Each structure stands twice: as structure tokens, then as C-alpha cells.
């Protein structure tokens, strides 16, 4: 079972969109943020940018509401994917995702989301600021603890 996930350091993201372009190019053959499986939410006024991608939840709401059974978890690596040939385009998965990670390809009539590029996420490889990393869960949690401790130390 895969114990790695995409970890984002929001302070490092400059909102360049490289991750979005690489993702759409790899999956759709074109550079289009609208077809990317990772999306940057931009807060231009304050200069903050937040890359958002599927969390491959342990209990995916998208998977539980899919009437066609098109959303499945790979038992070997734990990655949640959409079988496009089974997707009926009902968009229930979009409604169910509490994070807004699910997307819909209107011309093709199918839902899509991050599939971690089969365990080798290209957005991570091409993020030149290292804002996006593919890390084991325990390492990511340790980094969060370290950052929280540094914030506490600054305030004292």
C-alpha cells in the first residue's frame, strides 16, 4: 500500500502554473490549466498560491457515490483512480468531494482527478520551487511539526 502523498509547502508556491501545465500535457497532450489534475488557487491580493490536488482519501466520498463503480482504489498502491470507460458523466463525484479535487472534462463527458501519475507525479518533478513534494506520510507529518515548533519559538 502506498504511504506517500503530495505534500504542499504553500509558502514556496509562486503560482507559476508549471505543475498545471505539466499535468495537462502528460494526461491530455495539451497545456491547459483547465485540464490539469492539480489546480492552483491564487490569492493575488496577498500574493499567496495554493496548489490543490486529490488526497486519495482513505474513505473517498467520490468513490462511495459513484453509481457506475468507475472510481476504484488500486489494492497494490492505494491510488484512487477513475476508469473513464465506466464513467457515465453524472458528476456526483464532483458534488461529493469535500475538497473540490474532482474535475470534469466537458468535451469527453468524464470526470477526472489526480492519479499520482501512477506513483511518479510529474508536477513534483517539475516544481522548480519545491513547493510540491511526494513524501512518505510520516516525513510530511514531521515537517509540519517542525514548522509548527519554529512558529512557536518565534512567538516566544
Would you kindly provide a written description of the structure presented here, covering whatever features stand out?
The chain is an alpha+beta fold. The protein has two domains: 1-53 and 114-156, Alpha-Beta Plaits (2-Layer Sandwich); 57-99, 2-Layer Sandwich (Alpha-Beta Plaits), CATH 3.30.70.20. Helices cover 29% and strands 21% of the residues. It contains five helices and eight strands. The chain has helices at residues 18-28, 61-65, 92-96, 122-126, 137-155, and strands spanning 4-8, 39-43, 48-52, 71-73, 80-82, 103-105, 110-112, 132-136. The strands form four sheets. It has a two-stranded antiparallel sheet with strand order 1-8. The chain is globular, with a radius of gyration of 16 Å. The mean pLDDT is 91.
Task: Write the topology of this structure.
Layout lengths: L3 E5 L9 H11 L10 E5 L4 E5 L8 H5 L5 E3 L6 E3 L9 H5 L6 E3 L4 E3 L9 H5 L5 E5 H19 L1
Antiparallel strand pairs: 1-8, 2-3, 4-5, 6-7
Short description:
The chain is an alpha+beta fold. It is built from 5 helices and 8 strands.
Please indicate the count of domains: 2
| Major sheet strand order | 1-8
Order of helices and strands: EHEEHEEHEEHEH
- Unreliable stretches (pLDDT < 50, length at least 5) are none
Count the beta strands.
Answer: 8
CATH class assignment of the largest domain: Alpha Beta
Cα separation of the termini: 41 Å
Shape: globular
Biggest sheet details: 2 strands, antiparallel
- Fraction of residues in H or I helices: 25-40%
Give the rounded overall mean pLDDT: 91
Using the CA coordinates, give the radius of gyration: 16 Å
Determine the strand fraction and express it as a percent band: 15-25%
Secondary-structure content class: alpha+beta
* CATH level 3 topology of the largest domain: Alpha-Beta Plaits
Number of helices: 5
**Based on the structure given, which CATH architecture of the largest domain is correct?**
2-Layer Sandwich
